[in-house]
Structure prediction request, 299 residues.
Amino acid sequence: MIELHPVTLADKAWIDPIVLEENSPSADYNFGNIFLWDETYHQHVGRLDRRMVVLLRYEERPFFAWPIGGGDVVPVLEEMAAYAAAEGFPFVLRGVTADHLPLLQDVWKGDIAVTQERDLWDYLYAAEKLDTLSGKHLHGKRNHIHRFEEENDWRFVPLTEELFPACRQVLDQWLSASGEDEGDGVFDEYRAISRAFQHYEALGLEGGALLVSGQVVAFSLGEMASSDTFDVHFEKADASINGAFTMINREFVRRIRALHPQVQWINREDDTGRPSLRQSKLSYHPDRMVEKYMVELRT
Prediction:
């Protein structure tokens, strides 16, 4: 029987081992993203055998995440479907990766409706490529770096609590430029980043800040998603400084590779369907994509 409760920081202790057992590069499963976006998705979590069950709600519609973990997933899926039926809402799974999809198609045959959710696909890049920016496709990125280095007195430092007020100024500037329209998800992201600052150490997040003439002009933070993948949750920079985004990207990856030599992949998460964000992520020429689907059980 599934027993669910609102997610709290205390849940990190039992969720982290389950995330490690799943060992997926997807950005959807690590505890940081679950907790940071809770004000948007109002999540309830619970454990069933060796798997985590997450029930989310968005725009008043409930749905489940894929039940990550170990052991036979079919009985857990059946329990989740039964729970949805008992509560009177459709059984919908979101964030289903291409690896998981064949299993659902095998279990429920033609009784499921599958919808590709391209806006939610994660962008994965080889960590070494983002470190060196080598190759002709990234020639423009290297030019941005060179110009930034020539024009600025800069340094990169680990992100600490003392830098949060200055980072908030960068964040507020981004919000003002983006517009405070909750409908496009900008304010949701603002709240998630604010939550990251508030619980930075408790969540075990790692980050870095880019300083120009002693002032913070960019920051980035994230956490390990799997044994070989680091998930960059957020990256913000002063867009008026040429190359600031490119530099914070490179320097943070270099720090992550130094701290975690086993990291082979950098997950820079999805583009939420924003044209400018998609263009930016594609400009780095992703090496892989984590495809995601919505699956609904027909009744």
Observations:
- The mean pLDDT is 96.
